[in-house]
């Protein structure tokens, strides 16, 4: 009897062995393309490679700017300096005139971002919801702004700014943002149009039944729903203006009104001229890394506190489709 039970148990285990092997195989490979362990390992490998590509320059920047001249000359010191040296950061702070340049950059970027967020929202809603004569023609003209480069229109704009007495001020950069002009304005209008087009029309119809007009529907109904799109447009506009060097270099020739984007270029030119006269200095690269760090830290802090809503906004506005 005992032998019969052992024989039955052996047969049972043998019959279950193919099922266990099948489960193990599907666990590794997966019944679907994105469910197996191999696919997940491949995805993690791609993510780690991408993170390395993006984070290595940042780590190199931090390690270089915190090295003293001795560590910079020592070939054995690569990523971790022997002592944390803040002299390069202090020198870059003084060269940039950081508090004043930071104030100018923040004023310029915030003003442009707020104005473009509002003006492009109105235009995007009009293209998405309102019945406008020649709407398709006007939208086609809007798309043509992607083709016309900024360098084509910069000379007439400089002439107009000079005649109006606005050179060496930030107004020639801020005023066009109020009207949503240029490549950035066209892109943001398309983002808003994409978002408003996906909203149900029943919301507007219910508001019209309650006696609301076009402007009230826009500000009371649509704008509260457009918070993800507003955040995406605001962050894009802020970072775009913050990093922009071309327009400030055209309108702001006075060094006293230079934002951070121009200050970095001027420091690089000054270091290059100094190297031609006195020879290259061992701290030149460290100072460049320190100026870059002072330049990127405000947008990084902004994204750090808004990344959750930013990712949600990108998904809901259709930019990833």
General description of the model:
- There is one protein chain.
- This protein is mainly alpha-helical and 321 residues long.
- Helices cover 77% and strands 0% of the residues.
- It has 15 helices and no strands.
- It has helices at 2-29, 37-65, 69-73, 87-96, 98-129, 135-144, 150-163, 171-178, 182-197, 201-209, 214-225, 227-243, 246-251, 260-278, 284-316.
- α5 packs parallel to α8 (171-178).
- It starts with a helix and ends in a 5-residue tail after the last helix.
Mean pLDDT, all residues? 78
- What's the gyration radius in Å? 29 Å
Q: Which residues sit in consecutive blocks of at least 5 with pLDDT less than 50?
A: 5-13
Largest sheet: none
Q: Termini distance?
A: 67 Å
User: How would you name the oligomeric state of the polypeptide chains in this document?
Assistant: single chain
Number of helices: 15
- The coarse silhouette is globular
Number of strands: 0
Along the chain, the helix and strand elements come as HHHHHHHHHHHHHHH
Proportion of helical residues: over 70%
Coarse structural class: mainly alpha
- Strand share of the residues? under 5%
Keywords:
single chain; mainly alpha; 0% strand; 321 residues
Which helices and strands, and how do they pair?
Blueprint: H1 2-29, H2 37-65, H3 69-73, H4 87-96, H5 98-129, H6 135-144, H7 150-163, H8 171-178, H9 182-197, H10 201-209, H11 214-225, H12 227-243, H13 246-251, H14 260-278, H15 284-316
Helix pairs in contact: 2-15, 4-15, 5-8, 5-9, 5-12, 9-12, 10-11, 12-15, 14-15
């Amino acid at each position: 009897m005992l032998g019969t039970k052992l024989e039955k148990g052996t047969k049972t285990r043998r019959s279950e062995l193919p099922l266990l092997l099948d489960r193990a195989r599907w666990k590794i490979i997966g019944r679907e393309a994105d469910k197996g362990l191999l696919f997940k390992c491949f995805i993690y490998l791609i993510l780690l490679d991408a993170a390395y590509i993006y984070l290595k320059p940042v780590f190199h920047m931090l390690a270089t700017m915190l090295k003293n001249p001795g560590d910079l000359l020592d070939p054995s010191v690569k990523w971790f300096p022997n002592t944390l040296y803040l002299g390069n950061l202090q020198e870059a702070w003084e060269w940039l005139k950081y508090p004043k340049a930071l104030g100018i950059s923040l004023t310029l970027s915030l003003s442009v971002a707020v104005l473009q967020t509002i003006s492009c929202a109105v235009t995007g809603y009009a293209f998405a919801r309102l019945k406008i004569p020649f709407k398709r023609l006007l939208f086609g003209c809007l798309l043509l702004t992607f083709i016309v480069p900024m360098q084509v229109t910069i000379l007439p704009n400089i002439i107009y700014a000079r005649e109006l007495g606005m050179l060496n001020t930030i107004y020639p950069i801020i005023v066009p943002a109020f009207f949503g002009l240029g490549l950035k304005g066209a892109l943001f209008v398309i983002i808003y149009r994409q978002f408003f087009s996906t909203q149900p029309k029943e919301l507007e119809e219910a508001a019209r039944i309650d006696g609301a007009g076009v402007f009230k529907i826009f500000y009371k109904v649509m704008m509260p729903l457009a918070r993800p799109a507003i955040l995406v447009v605001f962050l894009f506009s802020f970072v775009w203006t913050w990093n922009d060097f071309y327009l400030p270099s055209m309108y702001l020739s006075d060094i006293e009104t230079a934002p951070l984007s121009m200050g970095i270029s001027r420091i690089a030119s000054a270091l290059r001229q100094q190297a031609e006269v006195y020879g290259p200095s061992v701290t030149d690269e460290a100072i460049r890394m320190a100026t870059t760090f002072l330049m990127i830290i405000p947008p990084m802090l902004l994204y750090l506190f808004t990344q959750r809503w930013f990712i949600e906004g990108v998904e809901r506005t259709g930019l990833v489709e």
